[in-house]
Structures are given as C-alpha cells and as structure tokens.
Amino acid sequence: MQQSNVDPVEVGKFEKLAATWWDPLGHSKPLHQLNPLRTAYVERHADGLFGKRVLDVGCGGGLLTEAMARAGAQATGLDMGEEPIEVARLHALESELDIDYQLCTAEAHAAHKGAHYDVVTCMEMLEHVPDPESVVRACAEMVKPGGHLYLSTINKTPLAYLTTIVGAEQIVKVLPKGTHDYSKFLRPSQLIQWCERAGLRVQHADGVLYNPLTETFRLSSRMEINYMIHAVKPHE
C-alpha cells in the first residue's frame, strides 16, 4: 500500500472526529450542511448517478459516498483513516447500503483501477495531503474516457483564512482548532492547471457560499472561500 502521500498528523485530526462523523450537530455539522449541495452538483453534471460506478477519494465517514449510493450508484470509498473507514462501514451496514470502503490512497488504488470509474469525487481532502497534485493525477487516471472528476477545496485568500480558520475554528468553534492549515489552501487557477496537466478538461468552476442565518450552502460565482471544480476526461 502506497503511503508516501499521507500526512499522519492530518489523518490523526479526522481519526479524533470519527465517532461523531454522523452527528449532524457535532463537529461534522458543516459537512452535513454542505452534503446536499455537493451531491446535487455531482448528480446534475454527471447526468444522474443511477447505475454508474463511482469513487469517493478521502471519503471520511462516508457522507458523500452514501448519498451517491442512495442515488443508485455502485459506490467505493477510499480513506487513510482507520477509524473513519470503520465508522463508514458500520453506518453503511446499518443503512443497508452495499458500499466498498477501502483503507487505501488514491495513488495505490489507481495502480489497478485505471479508467475504471464513471465518476470520481475528491471533496475537502486536497488541503490535507502533502502532494495534492499527485492525488489529482491519480483521480484522473481512474476516470473513464467521457467520465467525470469533481474536486472541492479552499481558496488561498485572506478572506478564506478569516472565514475558515479565524471564524469557524477560533470564534464560532464549529471546527476544532488546527483543522486547516492556510499554507495548504489552493487557488482555483492552480487546481485547474493540474487537471489540464492530467489530461482533463474543466467544465465548471463554482464558488460555494455559506449563509449563517439559514445554515445552508449555495453555489456562487464568487470563489474567494470554498469552491468546486468539475472536469471530464475526453474520449481518446
């Protein structure tokens, strides 16, 4: 199993949160609030998920993975956190969903799953690995020609720092302190360049904004904080 692109400190952060992953009022509350938006984003641009083979890289406790499985996809989830994977497996069992969860890196999985998936997602994960471009490249390798890759992360801007680290971690405290490292935030131009370098064509780039009054997320043309990218692999 390839583990070179794994930061044990980052993995440890999410190991500590594993027990409350499915608590909509716990530390994963922002993910629960975000999940309907990102699931709809994936489903819309993929023209539905029913019957499609999907892979969720950095799946954590399985929020997005389960949502895609419920939409009729044949779902696989990858993560390097043992506790989150166990939580994901248990919750899928309780939910009577057939999901293949694996303790594995994207790079190791890509070694034997090239051009295998109709849809690959990698959400809120790139800012937690030493070499995010390596993950993008591995994800691109696993997408079938004509298939889709979805990425989401945090922009490297002062506003993103104030919102996610000062606001969410230090003031409102909806996230534990130290969850994010500003030096690992990624500009959209950088992520788009990596996608193109991996042979993908970017179709959509959308900002994600949070309304604290309604506690909901929505898409926006503003990408200063969170954003999502949708790319496709051309037919050869």
From TrEMBL:
Pfam families the record matches: Methyltransf_23 (PF13489)
InterPro entries hit by this protein: SAM-dependent_MTases_sf, UbiG_MeTrfase
Catalytic activity: a 3-demethylubiquinol + S-adenosyl-L-methionine = a ubiquinol + S-adenosyl-L-homocysteine + H(+); a 3-(all-trans-polyprenyl)benzene-1,2-diol + S-adenosyl-L-methionine = a 2-methoxy-6-(all-trans-polyprenyl)phenol + S-adenosyl-L-homocysteine + H(+)
Gene Ontology biological-process entries: methylation
Signal peptide positions (record): none
UniProt family annotation: Belongs to the methyltransferase superfamily. UbiG/COQ3 family.
This enzyme's EC code(s): 2.1.1.222, 2.1.1.64
Source organism, top-level taxon: Bacteria
Protein name: Ubiquinone biosynthesis O-methyltransferase
MF-aspect GO terms: 2-polyprenyl-6-hydroxyphenol methylase activity; 3-demethylubiquinol 3-O-methyltransferase activity; polyprenyldihydroxybenzoate methyltransferase activity
Keywords, ordered alphabetically: Methyltransferase, S-adenosyl-L-methionine, Transferase, Ubiquinone biosynthesis
Pathway: Cofactor biosynthesis; ubiquinone biosynthesis
Record has Methyltransferase as a keyword: yes
Job description of the protein: O-methyltransferase that catalyzes the 2 O-methylation steps in the ubiquinone biosynthetic pathway.
Species annotation: Ferrimonas sediminicola
HAMAP family tied to this protein: UbiG (MF_00472)
UniProt: S-adenosyl-L-methionine binding residues: R38, G58, D79, M123
